[in-house]
Write a structure and sequence with these properties.
10 helices; alpha/beta; 7-stranded mixed sheet
Length: about 350
Amino acid sequence: MSTEGLVEVVLPGKVEPEGLRIRHGAVPSAGPGQVLIRMEATGVSFAEQQMRRGRYYDQPPFPFVPGYDLVGTVLATGAGVDPGLAGTRVAALVKVGGWASHVIVDAADVVEVPEGVGAAEAETVVVNGITAWQMLHRKARVRAGQTVLVHGANGGVGSVLVQLARAAGVKVIGTASARHHDALRQRGVLPVDYRTEDVAKRVRELAPGGVDAVFDHVGGRGVVDSWRLLAPGGTLVSYGSASTRDDEGSKQWPVFKLLGRVWLWNALPNRRRAYFFNVWAGRALARNRFRARLRADLTQVFAALQRGDVTAQIAAQLPLARVSEAVRLAESGTVAGKVVLNP
């Protein structure tokens, strides 16, 4: 067993980033069916930005260790787990618990990271890559030659989504502020400035017959515009409510309102579909199927990263001890890509 101790970040309650606490302890042991991972990279996701405001809709009670996903090396295996996993670099989607030097995960939930893919690189595409892949290929089921609209095309999920869509032969219209337009053009995206342009009007000019899919992370009122831009047979995939991050009041209500709208739209006889995407959907009911799908999809994303279809965007790398700074940076909206935490 390693002599180093456990270092983890604790979110004690609704606090500013400076209120995050560093806690030291003993390295935990892997139980039956589990592996002990030495974390090499974890990241600041949108989920943690919501959690520290108490606005993530199924977050655990405070205090807890945040950290939505991680990449690291298996240090030890518990009973019933292939001992050959030790020494392997793996990724895991955990929702909470990733902001720690050592993390216990069920062996069935880890996905091997291919040779030649670095820990920080892999980390940038765990939650963002799975989300993008599943929305694109499992929900919208895009095909070459189609046209899609991606809101926040430079964001964490958006940037992976546009690259996977382009690799699939799909035409992409992406909204972003002007400073990101050159980078989007280099990726073959038609950029639209959501700050200065009438997005709906501009999208209609670029796709007069409507678009085959819209990926919307903003929620709120804008979802109605997204729905109206769909071509017959098109799919709206809503995957968040960024517009309500700083709101007070019920954190469930924006989600329920959106679900109600989605339900109503799907009941209409117009051949268009709407989904509210949640990466955890199906986990409680069919855990094995959920795991198999997650493994298959993340493996596809890692292969796309290896091929160069997707490039890892690391905004910054900071040690766990500087987590407050990392969260501030991620929330500032001034960086492109993922803010990665190292042990």
